[in-house]
Design goal:
Number of helices: 4
Structural class: mainly alpha
Strand content: 5-15%
Helix content: 55-70%
Largest sheet: 2 strands, antiparallel
Radius of gyration: 18 Å
Length: 148
Amino acid sequence: MAWRIRVVMQSWIPFVLATALAITSLVGSIWLAISVANSPQFQTFDSFKAAPITWLVASAAADILIAVCLVYGLSKKRSKVSQLNDQIDRIIRFAVQTGAITAVAALADAIVFVSVPHTTVPLKPTPLPAPAPGTLSSTPSLMRIHAD
């Protein structure tokens, strides 16, 4: 998707930003997997917060960036041909809808993870329901642990 942004926006800056956010998200997810593998006891999952926060925030930021870039870039491509404009409007609508759904889900997940004490990330991430317009986004389902 980053390359599509490069083509639509005709600029390297959004491409580099989207790629950096996607790689950051990937690093956060790998970091989380390594953390869970090194400390597989469920009670210790609360001890690592940076990895899932990195993963979730980078994914949400990438989704927002991609949606904004696509909307802005495609809005500049309008022409005097109404059929072409209708197709551009359809693509813009799709980019906004999917980008908003995935970004809101990832941001809500990150906010709950940071603000609710004793939340953990289960071992099996749940994919987002909408197709992510950019990164391979998935978000962990958060669970509340009640200490005995």
